[in-house]
Design a protein that fits this description.
This protein is an alpha/beta fold and about 260 residues long. It is about 35% helix and about 15% strand. It contains five helices and ten strands; from the N terminus they run βαββαβαβαβββαββ. The strands form two sheets. An eight-stranded mixed β-sheet has the order 3-2-1-4-5-6-9-10, sandwiched between helices. The chain has a two-stranded parallel sheet with strand order 7-8. The radius of gyration is 17 Å and the shape is globular.
């Protein structure tokens, strides 16, 4: 465990403002817990669909909880306006939302025989379109000077060149689409804010609800807790340089080919 005063993000401003999208998820919640202990984090905005019904972070008095539904652009725009009014500029946005399966009908496809339009539509809306709407409204809020990072959780299985097994059509394709959308945003962002970055992050295999149904096939030594994943991803964010913008970055800081 790191000491509470040992900073993970010294490369950001001495008093930085951060936003966690999907703050009540397994990894999103771990990001929140790490950031409330970060010495330089002055304001922390935590969003979820229904924050009024979730007391998971009630003890974190430094965090401001906002409603944001990534499938509703009006909701995204409203949350961004609150952040703008209260903080002005922000230095870190972490989008920790995503879907692979649910407890009802959505499961990753084993072959093309299981592909259907409804599942593709839902997975793309949450994994690719939602984060892009967040980028649309939050990229303009990134600080004009000094390092600022917009990062969305992606996945190695979204790499086209790394696909050797097939299957998981909707999830793979949605993450590949997310990678392209973030790359496009990074190109445009570099023209107006040279020190700002827009990246995709692969956190590795994390012990959350997303991976739970598949954990028996995952070697235990390769799976990490949400807390460990959050810590090492924030260290990756800290080490990022402007030249890393637009890339898919692995949990160890290396680039994953698209």
């Amino acid at each position: 465990m790191r000491r509470p005063t040992e900073p993970l993000l010294p490369s950001l401003s001495d008093a930085f403002n951060a936003v966690v999208i999907g703050a009540t998820g397994g990894l999103g919640g771990a990001f929140v817990h790490a950031l409330v202990s970060e010495p330089g984090c002055e304001r922390l905005f935590c969003t979820s669909r229904r924050p009024e019904n979730n007391d998971a972070f009630a003890e974190n008095t430094r965090a401001v909880h906002l409603a944001l539904d990534i499938e509703d652009e009006g909701s995204v725009a409203s949350a961004a306006e609150v952040v703008r009014a209260q903080a002005g500029k922000i230095h870190l946005v972490l989008v920790a939302t995503g879907i692979l399966h649910d407890d009802i009908t959505l499961q990753p496809e084993k072959s093309w025989k299981h592909v259907n339009a409804d599942s593709l539509d839902r997975v793309f809306r949450i994994n690719a379109i939602g984060p892009t709407l967040v980028a649309k409204h939050f990229l303009p809020l990134l600080a004009d000077e000094g390092k600022a990072v917009f990062a969305a959780l992606s996945a190695r299985v979204g790499s086209i060149s790394d696909n050797r097994l097939g299957g998981w059509h909707a999830y793979r394709a949605s993450k590949a689409a997310l990678n392209m959308l973030l790359k496009t945003n990074a190109v445009e962002l570099s023209r107006i804010k040279s020190d700002a970055l827009c990246v995709a992050l692969h956190p590795g295999t994390v012990d959350t609800r997303l991976s739970a149904p598949f954990q028996r096939n995952i070697p235990s030594k390769t799976m990490v807790s949400p807390e460990m994943a959050a810590t090492r991803m924030l260290k990756v964010v800290n080490a990022l340089e402007p030249s890393d913008s637009g890339y898919l970055i692995d949990w160890d800081g290396s680039r994953i080919p698209f």
